[in-house]
Amino acid sequence: MKVAVIGGGIAGAELIRDASPGPLEFTLIEPKKQIEMQALYPEYLGGVARLQDLAAPLKPFCERVGAKHVQEKAIALEGKTVICEQSRVDFDYVVIATGAAQNYFGIKGVENTFSINTLEETKKARRFVEDNYPERIMIMGSGLTGVEAASILAESLDASIYIIEARERVLPLFSPQTSAMVEKALSKKGVNILTSTQVAEVKKDCIMFTDDSCLDCDMAIWTAGVKPSPFIQDLDLPKKNGWILVDPNLQAKENVFAIGDCAWIEVDGKLATRTGLEAERQAKHLARNLTHLAEGKPMEKYSVRASTDSQVALISLGADCAVGVVGKTCIGVPTRLIYSLKSWIDKSFIKRFK
Ligand SMILES: Cc1cc2nc3c(=O)[nH]c(=O)nc-3n(C[C@H](O)[C@H](O)[C@H](O)COP(=O)(O)OP(=O)(O)OC[C@H]3O[C@@H](n4cnc5c(N)ncnc54)[C@H](O)[C@@H]3O)c2cc1C
Fold first, then answer.
1. Domain-by-domain residue ranges, the chain?
2. Which of 184, 300, 316, 348 registers the highest number of CB atoms within 10 A of its CB?
3. Phi and psi, residue 343, nearest 5°
4. What is the pLDDT of residues 228-252, one digit of tens each?
């Protein structure tokens, strides 16, 4: 059974690793040479994580598991063929796992911001920090990426760090208890927190807000939100808010599955979060279901673990400090142990592919 996997991030690569060896013949379509661990980008930005901790080359991994790597971007689906930049890949089943793109919500001056949504962009931001020693850094957005970046920069640089959030508290998608604990930790590190503050425009040396006030800055980092990639937007598949809508078997339509950040996964009223934890679980589940299909067995329904109304996460707040979140409960001690656990999980994920 030929399975084409589009995207070799956490979801796509883990699916192939988990299903191998087995009855499935995989082709991985991924333009990058390596699998990358986004959860470690904030630490790379802060100069704590090394490149070898957060990436693993795909060539030896694919050779080891017997998968073919087509190092190109997928452009379209035509029947049972993926059209790539230069080649075509035929499949019996295709799995779309192309992640998400940064969403700038139409603000002006995007070209004056840095992003840490991809490794290339994170490297650019790190180089800017090393070459320019920015003294005032504005981080826009206070989701997981924003608070992790603010903490690590506050700890590793002699600079004023600001975190800007349009809603009334940091980590607005988490419980108020989690937000309060994280705000306290950020303040202790000297991070300036501006909530209920909306960015209108990012200029080269300042940020303009919707109430016409402005703040000078030497570096602006945008972390506020993601959206479906252009590839997803152009596919003729069921969608919800632009994301690929899948059923409880993670299936969008006959022969087409979607997992990870690119998918809208809602099972029994629980909407999956766009996290590495969920991407990895979905990959493992689909690996089992595809193997069942090859063996003529029925597929099993997926169950969401980390949902938008009951988050599960480990949030690092600088080197040696992290908190754990399970539903409405936020566990803040022992911070060092939680940090070690998070660091071990993130780094050991990449090690599996080496
Ligand atoms: C800075 C940051 C920190 C994070 N921290 C955490 C954390 O601490 N804990 C946690 O659980 N989650 C965290 N996340 C979220 C987590 O990283 C994502 O949910 C996870 O990576 C999603 O996996 P994915 O495979 O769906 O997408 P990705 O890992 O983004 O992989 C998508 C892959 O698809 C490829 N691709 C895209 N378009 C195409 C195309 N047209 N053709 C072929 N390939 C394509 C890309 O090159 C990429 O390799 C973080 C995210 C960021 C950005």
1. 2-31+72-100+228-294, 104-225
2. 316
3. -60, -40
4. 999 999 999 999 999 999 999 999 9
Question: Among 184, 187, 191, 205, which residue's Cα sits nearest to residue 159?
Answer: 191
pLDDT given for residue 310 in this prediction? 94
CATH no. for 2-31+72-100+228-294? 3.50.50.60
Peptide bond into 21 cis (omega under 30): yes
Q: Probe ligand 1: pick from 27, 98, 321, max atoms within 8 Å of CB? A: 98
Predicted TM-score of the model (pTM): 0.96
Is residue 319's pLDDT more than 90?
no
Q: What's the pLDDT at 338?
A: 93
Neighbouring-strand partners of residue 334: none
First to last CA, the chain: 26
Has domain 104-225 been given CATH number 3.40.1190.20?
no
Q: Each residue of 265-275: b (16+ CB within 10 Å) or e?
A: bbbeebebbbb
Atom of ligand 1 nearest to the CA of 229: 38
Q: What are phi and psi of 249, to 5 degrees?
A: -90, 10
Per the prediction, the chain carries an average pLDDT of 96
